């Protein structure tokens, strides 16, 4: 039982990333009808927002420490971050240590601006074009973005650690009545799952309980009728694109301590996230989230040593295998809507 619970936790961890990215993809497709293959790049850009802020906090200047000596007896040169001077040594050190959570505040305006620029500068010209054209142009945009990141940050992963207070592991087994040490799980992965739950809940609450969200949902169901009521639905859909970009970016920010950011991490998640969207049902927000967590848990169980020994390679294909089975039995996915991408 403890092994099963551990795999469920691992699955919820992976599923959180899948669900957040798939949620943003579905928001864009459901509102604008655009198949956005650049969405994985937005996840990557969010991760590099955390990298950038961490580097900004660590900008430093060189000083001479008369007390400390090198091996030749000369005064030691030390690097002093500028934030130590601006905010004090204690506050500056805390800002560097907690740079990943603080990156949320940095990433929100950056990702909203990137989302608005993408939609107004490129995506709006492909609303009425075939889905194949949308895929080609957004995939090309994704390649351009990752090459830009590669140019400025290099090809190697950049470690961006979690705060020291959250780098340990929780004894979940002892907390729920199992033997102490039977289920040990990293704090930051639990934080990521809780963060994903809050973001997903916030998006659904925004769409369900605010006037803006109700209009957007109405526009998703019948865009022409909403437009005839004198509502500028295009403007609201542009804002939803920015929100979807922000969701993907925040998912990337908080994922940096789990997987060190690199320029191709967006592509690594993109294909899996599209599989999640298709399994959940094109245009279904609830389906995208449910499929994200479901496939994350299944992938985790398929990675168990006993399963891999019995079925070698099953952990590499389980998501695609499940997708085939579901689409054969439910062609619209788990919660797909009639008429979506069926023309």
TrEMBL record:
Molecular function via GO: transmembrane transporter activity
CDD domains given in the database record: TM_PBP1_LivH_like (cd06582)
Membrane spanning stretches: 15-35, 42-61, 104-123, 190-216, 237-258, 270-295, 307-328
GO CC terms in record: plasma membrane
Keyword Transport belongs to the record: yes
Keywords tagged on the record: Amino-acid transport, Cell membrane, Membrane, Transmembrane, Transmembrane helix, Transport
Topological type in the membrane: Multi-pass membrane protein
Transport recorded as keyword: yes
Subcellular location: Cell membrane
One biological process term in Gene Ontology: amino acid transport
Membership in a protein family: Belongs to the binding-protein-dependent transport system permease family. LivHM subfamily.
Name of the molecule in the record: Branched-chain amino acid ABC transporter permease
Organism placement in taxonomy: Bacteria, Pseudomonadati, Pseudomonadota, Alphaproteobacteria, Rhodospirillales
């Amino acid at each position: 039982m403890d092994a099963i619970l551990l795999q469920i936790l691992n699955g919820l961890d992976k599923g959180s990333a899948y669900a957040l990215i798939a949620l943003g993809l579905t928001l864009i497709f459901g509102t604008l009808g655009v198949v956005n293959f650049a969405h994985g790049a937005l996840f990557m850009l969010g991760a590099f927002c955390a990298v950038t802020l961490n580097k900004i906090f660590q900008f430093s200047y060189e000083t001479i420490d008369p007390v400390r000596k090198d091996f030749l007896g000369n005064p030691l040169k030390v690097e002093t971050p500028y934030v130590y001077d601006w905010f004090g040594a204690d506050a500056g050190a805390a800002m560097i240590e907690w740079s990943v959570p603080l990156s949320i505040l940095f990433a929100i305006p950056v990702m909203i601006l990137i989302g608005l620029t993408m939609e107004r500068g490129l995506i709006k010209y492909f609303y009425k074009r075939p889905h194949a054209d949308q895929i080609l142009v957004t995939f090309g945009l994704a390649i351009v973005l990752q090459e830009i990141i590669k140019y400025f940050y290099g090809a190697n992963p950049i470690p961006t650690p979690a705060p020291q207070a959250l780098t340990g592991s929780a004894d979940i087994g002892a907390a729920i009545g199992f033997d102490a040490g039977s289920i040990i799980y990293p704090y930051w992965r639990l934080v990521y799952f809780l963060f994903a739950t809050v973001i997903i809940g916030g998006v659904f609450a925004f769409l369900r309980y605010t006037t803006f969200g109700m209009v957007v949902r109405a526009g998703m169901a019948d865009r022409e009728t909403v437009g005839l009521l004198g509502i500028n639905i295009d403007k609201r859909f542009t804002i939803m694109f920015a929100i979807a970009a922000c969701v993907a970016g925040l998912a990337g920010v908080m994922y940096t301590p789990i997987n060190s950011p690199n320029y191709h991490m967006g592509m690594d998640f993109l294909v899996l996230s599209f599989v999640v969207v298709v399994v959940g049902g094109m245009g279904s927000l609830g389906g995208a989230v449910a499929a994200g967590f479901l496939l994350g848990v299944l992938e985790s169980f398929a990675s168990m040593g006993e399963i891999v020994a019995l079925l070698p390679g099953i952990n590499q294909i389980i998501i695609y295998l499940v997708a085939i089975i579901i689409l054969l039995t439910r062609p619209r996915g788990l919660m797909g809507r009639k008429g979506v991408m069926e023309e």
